[in-house]
Amino acid sequence: MGRNTGISTFLNLQMLLAFCVLSVGLVLLNIMVGWRQWRQGSGSIRRILWVSLVFAFLEIVPILSAIPLASFFAASDDVLQKISVITFIATVINFSFVIGCLRPFVVVPNYDDLLPSLEEPVIRNRVAELSRGIVESCV
């Protein structure tokens, strides 16, 4: 008895559609997470979109790397279950590390405006004052 290629093709299309939806969802999630840092750092839309795309790719690398393994071990259900569990765990760990990179390093409570620029005279004078203090304490 031959394989039913119609069902197989339908399942492959469903998997491809789910993968595309996951990828777009991750890009949107990355933009939402990095939005505050983008706004406070006065970044560009192109930059946050590019970073979100790269990070979405990094977040789904475990899934992409499991596809060849799953197709190689397609005959064994036990191995496929183990690959699925390992892929899920790796994706969750990878996601948590990558999403942390989008959060701002400096969080000022209740402050959503742009952070002051280092070119402002008040900031430059304060940095110079602190630098002089450090140099004098070392000498």
The beta-strand count equals 0
**Total domain modules:** 1
H/E order of the elements?
Answer: HHHHH
Structural class: mainly alpha
N- to C-terminal distance: 87 Å
Question: What percent of residues adopt helix (DSSP H or I)?
Answer: over 70%
Give the rounded overall mean pLDDT: 76
* Oligomeric assembly: single chain
Strand content: under 5%
Give me the Rg, rounded.
24 Å
Strand-helix topology:
Layout: H1 5-40, H2 45-59, H3 61-72, H4 77-100, H5 121-138
Walk me through what this model shows.
The protein has one domain (5-138). The protein is 76% helix and 0% strand. The chain has five helices and no strands. Helix 1 (5-40) crosses helix 2 (45-59) and helix 3 (61-72) runs antiparallel to helix 4. The chain is elongated and about 70 Å long. It starts with a helix and ends with a helix. The mean pLDDT is 76.
Q: Characteristics of this structure?
A:
139 residues; mainly alpha
Task: Offer a quick outline of the entry.
With 139 residues, the protein is mostly helical. The chain has helices spanning 5-40, 45-59, 61-72, 77-100, 121-138. Helix content is 76%, strand content 0%.
